[in-house]
């Protein structure tokens, strides 16, 4: 839920009782939610193992910079998803989109060697745009750095 402070606490973030307050610098708004600990399920384990493997690929700094620059241009599009704020979110979106398009890809066991060997679209931002996994933005052809 959105929060409005009455007594001039513009920099308040954190926990208070059973509530968590946070500020979104991208949206310029404060939010509050109940502090609950989620039930652990098989889905939590699956997402954790996929994320661990994907970030274990250790994308290069140049690739990360391409994702950051792409994201800056992507957020300026009118039809873009404004909820993607960081390169990590964009990276995960790209990988899950790629796995959805090709069911033969297992994100839990994907390796850097497999990416290069199969010439997968996630190898560069340019190839991902060409494959239709990411939207076209201004100067997308320049994002050619490899993962």
Quick rundown:
The protein has five helices and four strands; from the N terminus they run ββββααααα. The chain is of the alpha+beta class. It has a domain at 55-142.
Element layout with pairings:
Blueprint: E1 2-3, E2 14-16, E3 19-24, E4 29-34, H1 42-56, H2 61-75, H3 87-101, H4 112-118, H5 125-130
Antiparallel strand pairs: 1-4, 2-3, 3-4
Fold and architecture overview:
The protein has 147 residues and is of the alpha+beta class. It has a domain at 55-142. The chain has helices at residues 42-56, 61-75, 87-101, 112-118, 125-130; strands at residues 2-3, 14-16, 19-24, 29-34. β2 (14-16) and β3 form a beta hairpin. The N and C termini lie far apart (38 Å).
Labels describing this entry:
147 residues; alpha+beta; four-stranded antiparallel sheet; 39% helix
| Relative strand content | 5-15%
Estimated radius of gyration: 18 Å
What is the H/E string?
A: EEEEHHHHH
Q: Which regions have little confidence, pLDDT < 50, spanning 5+ residues?
A: none
Give the helix tally: 5
What does the largest sheet look like? 4 strands, antiparallel
**Secondary structure category:** alpha+beta
* Overall outline: globular
Mean pLDDT: 83
Order of strands in the sheet with most strands: 1-4-3-2
Assembly annotation:
single chain
Number of strands: 4
Q: Please estimate the helix content.
A: 25-40%
| Distance between the amino and carboxyl termini | 38 Å
